Amino acid sequence: AWTTEAFKKGLISEKDTMVKPEWGDWKTYIEMVKYLVTQPNDFYKTLAMGVKKASEVYGGSEFALVFGGNEMPGYHTGPGAHIGYLIGLRHSHLDNAGYSIDQKYIGKEYPQPRKLIDELIEEEAWRQVLSSLVVCFFSRGVYKPSTVSRALEPLGLKMSEEELRKLGLEIYKEKLKLKLRLGYSPEDLKPPKRIFETPSPFGNISEDYVKEALNYYKEKILNLLST
To answer: Which three-class secondary structure state does DSSP give residue 70?
Structure first.
């Protein structure tokens, strides 16, 4: 998508792409995927490093849908999805299911930024337990804390719901510490401009809302890591 728009806006040429990218022309996109693998020129070598790198070299960062260096999945459901991509430990929609939180609030009053961050981190912390148990997230609705606690008993593991949630939060904190040691900086988190230009089920997403949420996230993780 980034390559097609960059091509149409003249930021790159056919000399770079070796084909003429066009919306809906899947045959051309298949060829481009092959070029991403073989990397026959500097453009594809750069693009293979991700859209973040490509937009830094060729321009078009305003429509480069990148979150923490990871490209966006196909969910544009509201603030929860995009903030979730930004703050997720892997910058994945599966980290905290912000899209699912968005869906929960359709037709209802949307939470304030701080409450949304609290919900996202609570969900991501709990998912540390589910992923440790190798639970498929499609079935996450079945594996409530009470169910997990009961399911562990026959294995000789007696853990209360509270203990499970505490363990999940500790795992979350350890992963966050590792990211910080490896160079992650919450200050670098910036939402792509394009998400504010395309209406979601809640209308256009507010830049101020996202900014307030990210500021609270930085404050919250500092407090978490100090305890």
So the answer is: strand
Instruction: Go through the domains of the chain in sequence order and give each one's CATH number.
Output: 2-64 (no CATH), 70-225 (1.10.599.10)
8 Å CB contact between 171 and 128:
yes
State the pTM of this model. Answer: 0.93
CA 82 and chain centroid, separation = 7
| Tokens of residue 169, six digits | 């939060």
Beta bridge partners of 201: 203
Q: How many Cα atoms occupy the beta-carbon half-sphere of 37 within 13 Å?
A: 5
DSSP strands (E only) in the chain:
66-67, 70-71
Mean pLDDT by 10 residues, the chain (227 residues): 98 98 98 98 98 97 95 96 98 96 96 98 98 94 96 97 98 98 96 96 98 98 93
pLDDT, residue 136, reads 93
